[in-house]
Amino acid sequence: MPFFLYKSAHIPVTQYHCQGEPLPTDLEHPHQPSVSSFLVSPEMVQFTQKHILFHNTPTWGHQKPIIPFSMQILRSRPNVVISVLTCADVYSKLSAEVDKLPDELREDAKVRFHIIDISGVIFNPLPPVLEFEPTFKAIFNGETIKCLSSGKEYNLPPVTVALIDPFAGYAIEAIREISENKTPYLLWFTGTAGVGLQYFRQTPSEKLNMHTIRYGREQDIMPRLPEFLDSVTGETITCPGVATMYDYEKYPQELPIVGDMFIHLGRKYIASGQGMIIVSSSSFEREAIDATKKWFSSLGQVVYPVGPSLLPDTPSSAPLTSARCDAQVPVVEFLDRMQKKHGERSVVYMSFGTFFWPKNPEKVWAVIEELLATGTPLIWAHPSPFCVVPEDKLKLFQDSDIAFEMQWAPQKEILSHPVTGWFISHGGWNSAQEAMYYGIPQIYWPIGADQPLNAANMTLVKKAGFELIEVRTGEYGTRKMYRFKDSDPKDLPTFTVEAVRREIRELVTKLKGEEGLAVRKSFEKISREFLSGWNEGGEARESMDTFLKSKSRDASPVDGNNPRPFQNRPALLMSNSRTHGTRINNTMEHIRSQSIVNAIWHQTLPRPSIIVVLAVSWNSFESRGFGFISRIGGFGIRSTAGSTMSTSAPGKRVIVIGGGLAGASAAHTLLEHGSAVILLDKKPSLGGNSVKASSGINGAGTETQKAHGIEDSVEAFTKDTTASAGDDLARPHLIHALTSNSAPALSWLTSQFGVDLTLVTRLGGHSIPRTHRGKGGAPGWAITSALIKKLEQAENGTVMKNAKVTKILQEEGSSGRVVGVEYEVNGEKKVDHGSVVVATGGYGADFAGFLTQYKPDVVSLPTTNGDHATGDGHRLVQNLTGAKKGVLCDMDQIQVHPTGFVDPSNRDAKTKFLAAEALRGVGGLLIDRAGKRFVNELDRRDAVTTAMQQCIDDGKGPVRMVLNVQAYETLKAHCDFYISKGLMKKYPSAKEFTDDTGLSLDALNDTFTAHSGFAAGKAKDPFGKTNFDNADYNVNDTLFIAEMTPVVHYTMGGITVDGGAHVLDADGQKIPGLYAAGEVIGGVHGRNRLGGSSLLEAVVFGRLAGENAAKDS
User: Fold this and answer.
1) What is the pTM of this model?
2) Which InterPro entries match (predicted)?
């Protein structure tokens, strides 16, 4: 019987509760009117609680994905309660995961997400969980059930739909029998589609009998495991999107302890329900997903890909509240210590998960010993109950200062730490997803189940990992693999312990070299694509919504009853005024936002209905109610439904144009101030030029400088920036805004986003070392990607890619206030309303436009800018049609960077890779064709460019940059990337270089000798160089050399703004509602930008724009 909400009655929204806890309803919310103050007609509000039940085999890899998928459901559906019936060990682990959730989501989960231990401790996951059947029967009959771990009792509503592991056949049989096939169920599959295709389309073994499936005991099942092994014929296995292999390759180790019993259970039940929810995505395995959909469609079923299934939290933000979490402290301390001593990405993490363990551990010890022998920092976790570690092996860790051993490891804390570089794993799908989430490529040691296929796909098909081959054991594991079918016998693996040691030594070399870098780049690309599934319009989000709206056979959908016809539904006027409400079309008086939103959500209004909101406290309504309205198609903070009508909410809504660092900084600042944000970018991916910045970010008076003993000040930074800008174009108010906010900007990046900025160097034009970066790769990528990743997970933020803004809208009348934008997405025109922040970057690739118009002499030069840098934002502001129009300034000020790489394979390419100024900052030299220096490498960019251009014009080119080993090691990640692209070449000594180029070895030796003397103070450098890092150059040492050319790099001109990032009109007056940040603004740098100030400008003015736009809105 449904519940109805009346004016004078306190009636619960839900039909269940947990004994000893308050009813899970927020109708009686502090500081809000009580339920009795609302008048709602019975036909208006019907609350229908929906119940999703999960049950999986008690292995952690099958259980863990439940949490993130459930949280996505709870976020989008306030009428859903979720229960997980499991064992004691999984109960504690799932509870720990819930404790790590963000506050708001965690509190919601504690009310609507119930982890219920029904069986106590389970050691072996193979036998059926016998307690499931009576527990489900109790729920079906409306009886109370009890959690054995917590002692809490639950009265749960009837199960709307069950999501069951295909290996839990006992649960499927119980649901069918008890409900008489009335409770619908879908299969919950936590592997890849490729694995499902290769393993589960065959006929299950006839030896699977119903008694074994439902009631078998451990002593009955374990002796029979060999009976379930598939026959091995040596045939070739092929299926869509999966690496080809021989059938015996799915047994890479001695017979797995689980045998093939799980596989045969999967074959029996994988297609037995109303469909399957699979924790994978088309972005990762499109061919396999498409083939799986076709297979299920032929059976009248649907496949819902919902990968990735990873928690949207920051592990370090979770309190260390449990005994298990106490283990995180020494691990993190070890990681911090390794980072300080060995640098980023130096630690290898090794774990086979909570169940699997190689049957022959001698090869495990060999791997550990060789990693330590090569000086590779190592964390080893061994939670499997089958792992027994001898005392002498434990002593290896006790005696080493680069090794850490533990039974259970806080895996997310390890993988998210910047020092972790590689993950040795069995390759199970759960670990693979977590590795992708944190961008840590894997070294595969498959043992059984889906692992051999995952390993082969990532290493052979995607070239995004390494697989250990010599570690294989057993009859099948040591047979010739398909990948070696044409190999010379002498090149085949031998599978000995000594061969394992040799393989590890070779692997360590690969990890540190070009092959390791290439694998990491491939892995990171795959990860970025895979993790987009939960973005707005992503496959996972749409699959979830389709599943929740679907109707399984005779059951109602999770989303509830079908909506009534539109003409029978009134519009609503919603008000949280403290005086009185207004009646419109027979609606209601004095309603409160959250309760009426819940009412609407539970089918009171159809989705096309109109909702008007009058709110005294908009922030309260927005934070608690507006997200729900967006989901039923009305006004909504996150709604981006296809319509030319605005979907914006009134009030604190701001539109950011541009997805680089300036736009991301503005968006995060707006979110911090309580505003809702929609970020629009015309490209299919975010980042812009910001991700390319490779030298660092400037800051004066930072904690990093203090830690390095560097004394700096805002005044010194201001003086350097003013000198660089030139007296005639220096604008003190903008320079002060940049320099005075520099240290707080860097502190914000490190504290809020975990960006590593622990290194500092001096670039050209700076009197003091103040350019910050981390120990890894390009700082632009590190900073920008950290902000983008967090922004795409933000509750109140919407990111729309491929969205090109065509017009900025203004109010009619004299104010000229900016009120929104028009834009196009996939050819469809849309409008959104709110204040606007323009952060579209510069015009360094606009050769036919602004460059020709303002600086035609640079049009012949190549550029480092992407094709997005075409001055779009400049034109949007310049072409305002209202009472106030924006103006541009300094448009002829184009920075030509002195050092762009000349690619020997494509010398005439118009777009070049930038040779980071940091290369010169750490000691790189510039030489002409005679091997002589001709400039102070650390002079301002404009001065170095002038000297280079003169050298080339005088016929003394090409110009080359030379680095010694010390300079290379300081920027190893940069240099290895350049080498992998063929832009930089490594020479064992100067002789090989001079032989290659015809340059005089004696002349080069004279240059090196003279430079070393200048560094030692024996003479004064004729070019004025006074700072010498890594100055010891010797013709007998290894050198790293690349050819250089000047390139259009940065545009100092742009939109005129004040020191608060407000856009100004021709009279110097603010245009209300319009802000700009990043390279799109003009006047900050005058005639020349100092290296390291582009990223700083993006963050500082992005923050200023966000802060002031939040106040304005």
Assistant:
1) 0.48
2) FAD-dep_OxRdtase_2_FAD-bd, FAD-oxidoreductase_2, FAD/NAD-bd_sf, Flavocytochrome_c, Succ_DH/fumarate_Rdtase_cat_sf, UDP_glucos_trans
